[in-house]
Amino acid sequence: MAQPQDAVAYGALPVEQESQGYGAQPVDRKAYEFLPSVQLAPGAAKTLSPSADISYLMTPVKTQNGLKSCVAFGVVAILESLEYGKLNPLQEQSETFSWSRTKRLEGRDPRDNAGVVTSNALTIAQVDGNCWEKLCDYKKAPFAEPSEAAVKSAQNMKAQKPITVQSLETIKGMIDDENNPHPVLLQFKIVGTESQQASYIRGDTEKDGYIKMPDPNWTRTDGHCVAVVGYDDNNRHGNLQGYLKLKNSWGIDKGDHGYYFMPYDFFHKYSEGIWYIPGQEFDLGQDQVKSAAPSSSYGLDPNKFIICPGQSH
User: Fold this and answer.
1) What total number of domains does the chain contain?
2) Where is the signal peptide (predicted)?
């Protein structure tokens, strides 16, 4: 496949393509249910702390620059967290690689400002891998196709097969794991028109990061992907109590230095899918590859979590 002569040439976004920085297409339920899933073991919820925050595992908050690339940013945020304890300092991975290859998989032009299906992006991470940001820089060229060097490097940076996460309590258990905490990838519905979104996830929410409950009659108009990095059962804001902490991808000038807070009530009503990526290999150059791959137990404490097989089709 011919590569673009100059990747930077694809960096500019035509005005007519501007979006709100979402882009998660409806979850492919068949693909979702095919994956193994994890749930918290009976009785384990009693041992959970009332709050936990593992944002220290994450690389700095980035920005989509208003493009429909949230799935790539969410997936890459999780991949980068797998570097913690293995690479120092943590290295940025490429959202452009993930977004471009996923659009290609879906039969789209990689230069289109188009949302993608999360399960397809996870397939790309598993089959094609991902590369370092310096080889396929989103800030310079979000619509570029990866170079041969990026594709070759990505083959040494394949992620393990993801598993789905069954409940809010399981998310808490994964974050509150003292020995091996894990952030998870969350997709949720965006409902209402652009002006209506200002009342619960835009507008004032951009000042403090606290998502509100939208009108229950509003329907899905888009979807968004983020990394869940914390929770607090006792956090009260207005008339809502209990919040998840999210690493968003709208820049550090939005929310709480780029982080947002989702009410448990919102999660229960609007979440569409939750995924955990067990591990990834890292290309260190000079034919060196460092693995973050866990054991067959998916890197989860078998005394605390139960792995369930996916549905066969």
Assistant:
1) 1
2) none
Give residue for tokens 């990526």: 277
pTM of the model: 0.92
Question: Cβ of 215: how many Cβ atoms within 10 Å?
Answer: 10
The residue to which tokens 């709208």 are assigned: 250
Tokens of 236: 């009260």
Q: How many C-beta neighbours within 10 Å does residue 264 have?
A: 17
Do 164 and 37 meet the contact criterion of CB atoms below 8 Å apart? yes
Tell me, what's the pLDDT at 299? 86
Model pLDDT for residues 61-93, shown as the tens digit of each residue: 999 999 999 999 999 999 999 999 889 899 999
* 5 in a structural domain: no
Please, what is the angle between helix 95-105 and helix 118-127, to 10°?
110
CATH of the domain at 49: 3.90.70.10
**Within a domain: residue 22?**
no
Q: Residue 56: exposed, middle, or buried by beta-carbon count in 10 A (0-12, 13-18, 19+)? A: exposed
Between CA 261 and CA 244 the distance in angstroms is: 6
Judged against a pLDDT cut of 50, whether residue 21 lies above it is answered with yes
Name the 3-class secondary structure at 266: helix
- Residue 181: count of CB within 10 angstroms of its CB: 19
- Tell which residue, 282, 302, 277, has the closest CA to residue 292: 282
**Domain extent at residue 121:** 29-283+297-308
* The pairing of beta strand 240-247 with beta strand 37-40: unpaired
Q: Which neighbouring-strand residues pair with 63?
A: 250
Looking up tokens 């998310």 gives 171
Report the distance separating Cα 16 and Cα 129, nearest Å: 32
